[in-house]
């Protein structure tokens, strides 16, 4: 895979983000409109794009390859969790903000950016592996992620606020059943079952899925437009964090995992998913718990902006 292709895709992504910024500043897209588009992406277009990948007539991965991908990506998340405890200490982050850097470390934007990026760079055959990564992401964010935020909220909250942050095990289990986990599971089931659907349905899903890239970048553009440049670029520790998290960690994972097997598509998908910038979901969850969110917001925006350079840098290690 030529690094030029990756760089071209990142430039395209940033052009679309720029369009989102312009539309927000010209009041064509509002904050409420951005939220509505986010719901459309999460519940409709992303699931359609994933499911379409299972309906392709191209060569299929074997059950053994899917098992290897599951174990590999679970190991990557384990590495990310371990790294998330190390990075705040290396960067001497104030203890009350450790949770923010941990969430930014573990949870990358494998949905809004990862899905369209993998589709463009590696082809639709990579999306079955992206589905596995997304499934693990959703399982972790609503279990480990929420537990991490709840522990941090206990230290931050004023009297009476902590109770609102707590969730019962039943509520947490209900949150696991969402568009992300359902679409990832359906994609895997359709893929394994080699199901066929009428052309009308597959075409409709295809048209719907193609809207994902544009819509998701417009939403990111709105987020960038809402923050002052000095708020985004004034934290030197976030630059060091971005270098560690989005370049060194993905490369380290690639060098480690390819000692055990040499499936190019599984490893390249893993590298891309590990190299994407921070996800929006930790910010939404932190807001629900009335926590300090400035550090998470800055991290999301800066890692997204710097991904124009960090993703191509990490992709120098893509297997050819």
Please provide a written account of the structure.
The chain has 320 residues and is mainly α. It has one domain: Up-down Bundle (Na+/H+ antiporter like fold). 77% of the residues lie in helices and 0% in strands. It has 15 helices and no strands. It has helices at residues 3-25, 31-54, 63-90, 98-106, 114-122, 127-156, 162-165, 169-176, 179-193, 199-225, 229-233, 236-257, 264-275, 281-288, 294-314. The longest helix has 30 residues, at 127-156. The relative contact order is 0.19. Mean pLDDT is 85; it is low at 158-166.
Task: Classify the oligomer.
Answer: single chain
Task: Tell me roughly what share of residues is in helical segments.
Answer: over 70%
Residue-averaged pLDDT: 85
Global Rg: 19 Å
How would you briefly describe this protein structure?
The protein is built from 15 helices and no strands.
List keywords for this structure.
320 residues; mainly alpha; Na+/H+ antiporter like fold; globular
Task: Chart the SSEs and their pairings.
Blueprint: H1 3-25, H2 31-54, H3 63-90, H4 98-106, H5 114-122, H6 127-156, H7 162-165, H8 169-176, H9 179-193, H10 199-225, H11 229-233, H12 236-257, H13 264-275, H14 281-288, H15 294-314
Helix pairs in contact: 1-10, 1-15, 2-6, 2-9, 2-10, 3-4, 3-6, 3-12, 3-13, 4-15, 5-13, 6-8, 6-9, 6-13, 6-14, 12-13, 12-15
């Amino acid at each position: 895979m030529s690094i030029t292709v990756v760089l071209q895709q990142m430039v395209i992504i940033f052009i679309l983000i720029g369009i989102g910024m312009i539309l927000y500043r010209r009041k064509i897209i509002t904050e409420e409109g951005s939220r509505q588009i986010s719901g459309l992406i999460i519940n409709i277009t992303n699931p359609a794009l994933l499911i379409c990948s299972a309906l392709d007539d191209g060569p299929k991965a074997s059950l053994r390859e899917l098992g290897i991908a599951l174990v590999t990506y679970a190991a990557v998340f384990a590495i990310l969790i371990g790294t998330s405890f190390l990075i705040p200490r290396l960067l001497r982050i104030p203890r009350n903000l450790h949770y923010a850097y941990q969430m930014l470390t573990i949870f990358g934007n494998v949905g809004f950016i990862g899905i369209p990026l993998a589709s463009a760079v590696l082809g639709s055959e990579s999306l079955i592996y992206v589905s596995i990564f997304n499934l693990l992401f959703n399982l972790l964010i609503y279990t480990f992620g929420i537990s991490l935020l709840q522990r941090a909220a206990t230290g931050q909250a004023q009297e009476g606020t902590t109770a609102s942050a707590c969730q019962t095990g039943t509520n947490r289990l209900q949150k696991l059943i969402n568009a992300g986990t359902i679409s990832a599971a359906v994609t895997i089931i359709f893929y394994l079952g080699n199901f066929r659907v009428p052309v009308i349905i597959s075409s409709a899903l295809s048209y719907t899925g193609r809207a994902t890239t544009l819509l998701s970048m417009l939403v990111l553009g709105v987020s960038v437009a809402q923050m002052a440049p000095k708020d985004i670029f004034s934290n030197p520790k976030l630059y060091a964090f971005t270098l560690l998290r989005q370049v060194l960690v993905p490369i380290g994972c690639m060098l480690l995992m390819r000692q055990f097997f040499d499936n190019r598509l599984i490893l390249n998908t893993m590298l891309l998913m590990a190299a994407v910038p921070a996800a929006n979901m930790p910010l939404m969850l932190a807001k629900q718990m009335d926590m300090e969110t400035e550090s998470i917001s800055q991290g999301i925006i800066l890692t997204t902006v710097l991904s124009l350079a960090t993703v191509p840098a990490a992709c120098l290690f893509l297997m050819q």
